[in-house]
Each structure stands twice: as C-alpha cells, then as structure tokens.
Write a structure and sequence with these properties.
The complex is a heterodimer of chains A (about 260) and B (about 280).
Chain A: H1 13-34, H2 45-57, H3 60-88, H4 95-103, H5 109-119, H6 123-148, H7 152-160, H8 165-174, H9 178-202, H10 209-218, H11 222-250
Helix pairs in contact in A: 2-11, 3-6, 3-9, 3-10, 4-6, 5-6, 6-9, 7-8, 9-10, 9-11, 10-11
Chain B: E1 4-19, E2 22-36, E3 44-50, H1 56-63, E4 71-77, E5 87-89, E6 95-98, H2 110-117, H3 126-139, H4 155-169, E7 173-176, H5 185-201, E8 206-210, H6 214-220, E9 223-228, E10 231-232, E11 235-236, E12 241-247, H7 260-275
Parallel strand pairs in B: 3-8, 3-9, 6-7, 7-8
Antiparallel strand pairs in B: 1-2, 1-4, 4-5, 9-12, 10-11
Classes of the chains: A mainly alpha (about 260), B alpha/beta (about 280).
C-alpha cells in the first residue's frame, strides 16, 4: 500500500485500476454532495441527466454528426495544406513560406475572421475556413518539427542506396513518417476540437455542438451545459482513441 | 604469405573538408590497390583509427560522396568498363555506407528493405531478386526475421541487414563507421564473419571501417591508417590528417592469427594516437 505514495514506483495493473476507480468515485461523490441543497455552483447529476434527455430529443446525434463533419472537412483541407508545405520545406526556396505559416499561429483569430468575412459570405464555408486557417498554422508547426527531427543518418542511408533527392524525400519523409502525421493530427486534435465548438457558437450555420452550447448558455440551462461538455469531451476522446488505434494497428513499426 | 598488388581501387589526393572557417580534415592522401593472392579471392580490408573528433566520420562521408570535398579528389575503379585501371570520381551511392547506428528504413521489413536495395538492378527479374534475397537471408542468419521491422531486430540483425543492403546496391566498396561499437562478443564474431564473406566474394571488394578497438583493427585489416592532428613546427594543427600508415601485408602480418607481432603493432598505433 505504501508503494502507491512513493515517487517513480512501478505498480501493478490492479493497483492502477484501483487508484483510478477511487478517484472516479471521489469525483462523483464530491459532485453529488456539492450539488445538494438549494445553492450550488454545479448542476446536480439529476439535472445533467435531464439535460441529456432533452438534448437527445432535440437531435443531439444530428448535431454531433454536424460537428464531426465540419471537423473532418477542416482537418482534411488543413492537413493537405500543412503536409504539402512541410514536405516542401526541405526545398530551400519553400522553407521561408512554411516557417512563415507556422509563425502565423500568433495572429489572433479575430483579425483573420475579419478578412475571411470579406471574401466568404456563406456561414458554413466561413466556419470551415476559419478552422482551416487556424489549424494549418498549428499543424504546420508540428509537421515542421517532425521533419527537422529526422536524423541525418536516415537521409544518408537513403542516399547511400542511390536514392536521388526526391526519392529521399519520398522514402524517408513522406512514406517513412506517415505514422508521425497521424500522431501530429491526434496531438493537435484537442485544440481543433475546442476551437470547432467555439467557431460553431460564433458563426451559426448548420447546428453542431457549439450551437447547442450557445443556446443552453443563453437560457442559463446548467444541466444542459454540463451534459454538452461531457458529450464534447467524450466525442473528442473517442476521436483521439480511434486515431491512436489506427496508428498502432496499421503501422506496426510505429513506436512513438 | 605471397601477394601482389594490381589495379588501383581507391585513390585519394589532397582531400580536405571544411565547414565554413573550420577545416575538419586536410592533406589526406592514400592509395589502395587490388591485393592478389594465389588460389585465394582476397578483398581489401582497410581500417581507419584515431581519437575522437579527428575527422574519421567526415572522411567517411567524403569517401561515400555524401559530402563534397572542399579540395582534392577521390577516385574509385570504374568497373562498368572493361578497360583496366579506368577510374571515376566517387558519387553518392557508389560506395556503400553503414553508419554506427545501423540505420535502416524504419517503415520497411528486412525483406522489403533488401528488395528496395535491388530496385535498380533492371537486368534481374522479380523472381531472381527474391531468390537472391532468400539466399543472403539464409547465409546471414536472417531468414526468421525477414518480415520484421528494424525496431523489432537486435543490433546484430540490424547491422547484417544494413550490410546486405549495401552489398546489393553499391559496387565493390563498403564503408562502415565503427561497426564493432556496442556489440557483444557473439555479434563481433558475426561482423568478422561478414567481413570474410564480403572479401571472399570478389577480388575488388573493399571494406573500409573505423574502430576504437585497435586490436580488432590490427587483427582484421591488411592496411591501417591512423588519423590525428599533425604536429607542425612543434604545435598540434587543428585538423585531422593521416599521421601514420601501417601496411600489414608488408609486415607479413595480414591474414594471420593475432599473435605477439600484432601486439607490437597495437602498441605502436596507440603511441601514435596519443601523440596526435
């Protein structure tokens, strides 16, 4: 028992499960106790459950689908732009462009949306491109570090096997790092998912989880707000799990 | 042991490599010729020894065409023509290179890596390539791991795969940067066997390797170069060059079991290294 309080101690699987279960019970107990009585900050579990039921009846599944679709479209476009720039960043003439896009992550979203609003009139397209601009900067940053982290030995190895420079790029960077790309998407997903809900709540177009949370917020329906937060967290974690699973299943050599 | 020297296989003249203001190696000159022994296919085994930071790895990167020399030239025998002593300047891929970490493609299995190494052999059919790979895998004890990725191989298995890749892809030359570092006794024996296999396959096959284990250099090589900082006007220069060449063939110590005479050479090399 003492071991679980010792730094760097290796513990068994059962002990680990027991610790997690204890924390979950503690959080749930705190929630139940703190939401009893008339004045409380968080809604009670019963209120949250009621919120779930209401949301489900109002088409929660359709809204989740809408958010996921928006996420997928934005990710595909942003990953394509970022990958092309990151791969081509190995060419000296393209390097400054890739680095500049990476630096743009410090630009505030408001400034970008102003200019996008001038070009785009459709709200859904606007949502997609706000996310694309935002995500591309982060994805490019991570992908550039992925490329620069490749050891010189790997390039030398390909060159010693008579690969020309384009083959080196293809074999070592493109084919050799597909699993890293999935990992980069997974790691940036949390920011993207958080941003997506914000974008949906600012630019109302085709519903989505952000739209639902904004509506619930307007009517101070705390049960619904917490229910939605839980849904957003669970969906986000599920995407994270799926991407990690895909990487480990399809890329046996991937030991990231 | 009787031998003679014929075609020039490697010719290095006034080689220097500098990164900006910093000269790493300078005034490197050496020639390696084809060693002929009666009734014996004898490749060349050349060892390069020297203390850390003296430019061994830079010399190897220049020899393999991975970096362009600042001055000088590196010529190798052009075996694509029938003419004797035809030479060509070294280019990327002419000389096989196995680095210290035995780098392989992380996303290719052993079999896929070897198939990739054979991709330029247009005169071979897919079946012939398969046959060749399977023969090598069996001879080099890698049959069981043919479908494994580099991260699933032991150090010795990775090294053997890296060596076969280079045999398949490059010509007669192979450079190995510290092939014995971090290997256990068994793996060292494997590398020694690999050296014998390579040198017994073709007269022109030439292995150039670096090592910090002077005993292994003296035991295996027939030509040893010591790289160090030269002393000019009583001062150590800040670049690496060849400070001593020991021809084990001339000393009648090449291709012999390690004995007392070899120990004397080891002592000599260590003394030179300490002074440079």
């Amino acid at each position: 028992m003492k071991e679980i309080f010792k730094p760097f101690e290796n513990i068994g699987r059962n002990s680990r499960l027991l610790i997690i279960a204890s924390w979950v019970i503690a959080v749930l107990a705190f929630w139940f106790i703190s939401s009893m009585g008339e004045r409380h900050l968080f809604p009670s579990p019963a209120q949250v459950l009621r919120g779930f039921t209401e949301l489900y009846n109002e088409g929660l599944v359709v809204h989740i689908g809408s958010s996921l679709w928006l996420c997928l479209v934005a990710i595909v476009i942003a990953v394509t732009i970022s990958l092309i720039l990151s791969y081509l960043s190995t060419i000296p003439v393209i390097t400054p462009i890739a680095n500049a896009l990476s630096k743009l992550r410090y630009l505030p979203l408001t400034g970008i949306t102003f200019y996008l609003a001038i070009i785009i009139s459709d709200a859904r397209t606007m949502q997609v491109w706000v996310l694309v601009v935002f995500m591309s900067t982060y994805l490019t940053t991570s992908l550039l570090s992925m490329v620069s982290a490749i050891a010189q030995e790997e390039f030398d190895h390909a060159r010693s096997l008579q690969c020309n420079r384009w083959e080196v790029l293809w074999e070592v960077v493109v084919k050799g790092r597909i699993d890293h790309v999935i990992e980069v998407i997974r790691q940036n997903l949390a920011i993207v998912w958080m941003m997506l809900v914000t974008v949906e709540s600012i630019l109302v177009a085709a519903g989505g989880l952000g739209f639902l949370i904004k509506n619930s917020d307007k009517f101070m329906n705390h049960g619904r707000i917490i229910a939605l937060q839980i849904v957003i967290l669970v969906v986000g974690l599920s995407i994270d799990f799926i991407l990690n699973y895909l990487r480990k299943t399809f890329f046996r050599y991937s030991k990231i | 042991m009787g031998y003679s020297m014929q075609n020039t296989l490697l010719y290095v003249e006034n080689l220097s490599v500098a990164y900006g203001e910093k000269t790493v190696i300078k005034d490197i000159n050496f020639v390696e010729k084809d060693v002929i022994r009666k009734d014996n296919v004898t490749g060349q085994v050349v060892a390069v020894v020297g203390r850390s930071g003296r430019g061994k790895s830079t010399l190897f990167r220049a020899l393999t065409g991975l970096i362009k020399p600042t001055t000088g030239k590196i010529l190798i025998a052009d075996t694509s023509t029938d003419a004797e002593n035809d030479a060509k300047e070294v280019e990327e891929g002419d000389i096989g290179f196995v680095d210290q970490k035995y780098t392989l493609f992380r996303n290719k299995t052993v079999y896929q890596s070897l198939m990739f190494a054979l991709r330029l052999k247009e005169n071979m059919t897919k079946e012939q390539k398969h046959e060749k790979i399977m023969t090598y895998l069996s001879e080099w004890g890698l049959e069981k791991v043919k479908d494994q990725y580099p991260c699933e191989l032991s150090g010795g298995q990775r090294q053997r795969t890296a060596i076969i890749e280079q045999i398949f892809c490059s010509g007669h030359y192979m450079v190995l940067d510290e092939p014995f570092s971090g290997l256990d006794v068994g793996n060292i024996e494997d590398v020694k066997n690999a050296f014998s296999l390579i040198t017994s396959m073709h007269e022109f096959n030439t292995i150039i390797y670096s090592t910090h284990d002077i005993e292994l250099a003296v035991e295996l090589a027939d030509s040893i170069y010591v790289i160090g900082y030269p002393t000019i006007d009583g001062k150590h220069a800040e670049y690496g060059t060849i400070v001593k060449h020991i021809d084990m063939k001339e000393l009648n110590l090449a291709w012999k079991d390690f004995g007392m005479d070899h120990i004397e050479v080891v002592k000599q090399i260590k003394a030179v290294m300490m002074q440079s």
